[in-house]
Target: 8-oxo-dGTP diphosphatase
Amino acid sequence: MIVAAAALPGEGGRWLLQKRPAGGDMAGLWEFPGGKVEADEGPVDALIRELHEELGIGIAARDVAPLTFASGLAGPRDLLLLLYHVATWSGDVTALHADEIGWFDTASIARLAMPPIDYLLLDSLRERSRG
Ligand SMILES: Nc1nc2c([nH]c(=O)n2[C@@H]2O[C@H](COP(=O)(O)OP(=O)(O)OP(=O)(O)O)[C@@H](O)[C@H]2O)c(=O)[nH]1
Model:
């Protein structure tokens, strides 16, 4: 499974994470917004679709750039997680899908309960926060 996810930058080196809804897969864990890349779409198209569905924001492909990726097992499934930096967007970020959203610096992200693969993304996110 390929998943496209977004690193959305906020004030002071913070990034947006959302808490997966109760009752579902990996309930209560914090993650980067995004979702599965469907068979008929590319990863950036999937990201644009998912961010509209989950956060109600509009992003343009020209504002999306690869940041890093990680791979491993997510439960029984083999997952490739593509993390994209999203420079700008239109509309206000709204939690349409998540139980909660928040803006966290990388030290705080490291202390959140996340799917295991997400911890592998943190080095690149730290570098990007300094840049
Ligand atoms: N969006 C997102 N998904 C992640 C992250 N880390 C991680 O392991 N995942 C996993 O990647 C998959 C993302 O698919 P999805 O967001 O479409 O999940 P979903 O609820 O539709 O999955 P489901 O239909 O199998 O329950 C989930 O299994 C999720 O747990 C992350 O940082 N962001």
Q: What stands out?
A: The beta strands are 2-7, 15-19, 30-31, 34-36, 64-74, 77-86, 100-104. The chain has one domain: 2-125. The two ends are 31 Å apart (CA to CA).
